[in-house]
Write a structure and sequence with these properties.
Length: 96
């Protein structure tokens, strides 16, 4: 299982897939509840879902330092998206 996650391409595809899946789930949930989802709701849930594979890699990298060096060359955008999600969650928690 962990060797499957050891390829940056899998993490890239999983992130993109989760972003699309989250957007679809938010849209379908809105239709079922007969309530239109706001753009903020769709974007924040999609970014949070897309950051999950990167979060797994970061936690795994805390245990095995060689993992981060193999991912560092190809996951710049995913690391940035995870950082944006963390900043947003932190600011939201502090201001509400």
């Amino acid at each position: 299982m962990l060797t499957l996650l050891n390829t940056p391409d899998i993490v890239n595809k999983a992130s993109a897939g989760l972003v699309l899946l989250a957007a679809l789930v938010v849209a379908i949930h809105g239709k079922v509840k007969k309530k239109t989802a706001t753009l903020e709701e769709v974007v924040t849930k999609s970014i949070a879902a897309g950051a999950l594979p990167t979060a797994v890699v970061l936690m795994w990298g805390a245990l095995d330092h060689t993992i981060l060096s193999s991912f560092a060359q190809s996951l710049h955008i995913e690391f940035a998206a995870a950082g944006v999600a963390l900043v947003y969650v932190s600011i939201k928690a502090l201001t509400t």
